[in-house]
Amino acid sequence: MKRRQLLFKKFLSIFATFALFIFFYIPLAGCHNGSEDQLEETADSFAEAYFNWQFAKAVPHVTDSSVIWLQYASSQVDQEDIDSLRAMSEGATCELSDVDYGDDDTTAVVTMQVKHFLAMDSIGTSRHVVEAGVFDLPMVYQNEKWKVSLRALPRWKHVKDD
Question: In whole numbers, what is the pLDDT of the chain averaged over residues?
């Protein structure tokens, strides 16, 4: 009888250890800081504002040190650009295609497909509509929120062939 109780206790101990592993360790193995929904929402809100040249609306979605890049972008807009934006039949549309988390779970790179946007290639050149492009948006998790972290203006990786 004692041997049976001892075996049962060992079985319970092993089962409890296994159950704890399943319920606690495995879900944490793929865990990232913050919610993935909040990361995607921030990236999408930033992209919709930025690629439609609504730079003030993009500010809440970037880090404090990134605001200067939005200020720079807005300082490059002239009347010809405003006229071009108003003449467009539709605004830019953005679709998140991938999220690549960094090793420390406080950084990520969001890949965005952007369609029908007015490209700001370089100073002194006329802007032109680009039908599709792919952009990487660097993200950081700080103060319990994901934010876009700009070290330069976003540049497209390549233009998609549709």
Answer: 82
